[in-house]
Amino acid sequence: MPLAFFAGIGAGSKLGILFKGGVSLEMLADIKAVVMDKTGTITEGNFKVESVIPANAFTEEQIITWAGSAESASTHPIAVSIREAVKERKLTSEKPEDMKEISGEGIEVTLSEGKILCGNQKLLQRYQIAIPQNDLQESGTEVFVAKDGKYAGRIQINDLVKADSTEAIQRMKTLGLHTAMLTGDTEKNAKAVQETTGIDEVFARQMPEDKLKNLGALREKYGAVMFIGDGINDAPVLARADVGIAMGGLGSDAAIEAADVVLMTDEPSKLVDAIDVAKATKRIVMQNIIIALGIKSVFLILGALGIAGMWEAVFGDVGVTIIAVLNAMRILKK
Q1: Is 204 helix (H, G, I), strand (E, B) or coil?
Q2: Of 17, 118, 220, 281, which sits most exposed with the smallest number of CB within 10 A?
Q3: Contact 60/49 with Cβ under 8 angstroms?
Q4: In the chain, which residues have pLDDT < 70?
Q5: 244, 262 contact by CB (below 8 A)
Q6: pLDDT tens digits for 164-175?
Q7: pLDDT reported for residue 137
Q8: What's residue 160's pLDDT?
């Protein structure tokens, strides 16, 4: 058994898949559902500001500058894209006097020009700031900005689905796996990704505790569940899943630490490769057990009857080991 697991871990390494142990391989072969994060997992995670739409009495420069100041300390891909847009426009953002982050909603900062809110629709609703209906788009990610309790405008940001995401999800379905996506993004953006990739089920506007709750519900419904993500918010879900998989290239340190498996190339298609290696490893393990017990049982009986001698006993012991080694090495050709 250890021979097969070592070979499986080696085969995964050659494919850019890091298994943290034999238990990860064993569990991965038995999963029934695959649950995924959206940003950085199914999509590129390389956000880019597409447009800035100011409200009356405000300008594009004001909106993007205030947002850049509010997001000055954040490492989130959306925040990075806003800061890059500020640089591209050759504007200068101000360092906030104080900052308050509201989990899952956005940021409140105080600048020399006043109090700025920068975040999603929930943040403005919290402060009872109305958003014009025509500013609620059908696709893309929106960052809303308000100044001193008044709606100032929005920033439209887009993120592309990874080239191999659709193929990976179709391959998972071929294996009989249920696919689901948990994302903190809006319902419309989640549905747009679902239509593109063919994911079976999506859950939008998910806080970390919501992801844990829905992961548990999916486990009860389908059985063993694998979760794949890359963010700090994904760490609790990665740890709770039967098998947690992290994106190693763009993933946070917390997500990589909590995961059982790490994909070094950030390609969703590697998920299916990892499952294939796990299933092949499990088959080899079972074959080795059957071969070892079967041959040894035969020679034990022959020895007890006085038919088998020393040479037969050597083959029954050392020969079985050699057969198991050669059988386990087949995984390396996967």
Answers
A1: coil
A2: 220
A3: no
A4: 135-140, 231-232, 249-252, 334
A5: no
A6: 889 999 999 998
A7: 58
A8: 80
Distance CA(33)–CA(39), nearest Å, equals: 19
Q: How far from 270 is each of 2, 286, 316, 329, CA to CA, in Å?
A: 24, 24, 39, 21
CB neighbour burial string for 240-268, b if at least 16 within 10 angstroms, e if fewer: bbbbbbbbbebbbebbbebbbbbbbebbb
Measured CA to CA, the distance from residue 183 to residue 287 in angstroms comes to 40
Q: State the Cα–Cα distance between residues 186 and 219, nearest whole angstrom.
A: 24
Per-residue pLDDT reduced to its tens digit, 269-307: 888 899 999 998 999 999 988 988 888 888 888 888 888
Q: What is the value of pTM for the model shown? A: 0.69
Q: What are phi and psi of 307, to 5 degrees?
A: -85, -40
Sheet holding 17-19, edge to edge: 17-19, 261-263, 243-247, 225-229, 33-36, 178-182, 201-203
DSSP H or E run through 36: strand 33-36
Q: Name the active-site residue from 37, 185, 230, 276.
A: 37
| C-beta separation of 93 from 84 below 8 A | no
Note the pLDDT of residue 251.
56
Hey, what are 98's tokens? 């104080």
- Reference 206, options 104, 78, 102; nearest CA is 104
Side-chain-facing half-sphere of 108: CA atoms under 13 Å: 12
Q: Which amino acid is at 16?
A: G
Answer yes or no: are the C-beta atoms of 171 and 198 closer than 8 Å.
no
135 is annotated as an active-site residue? no
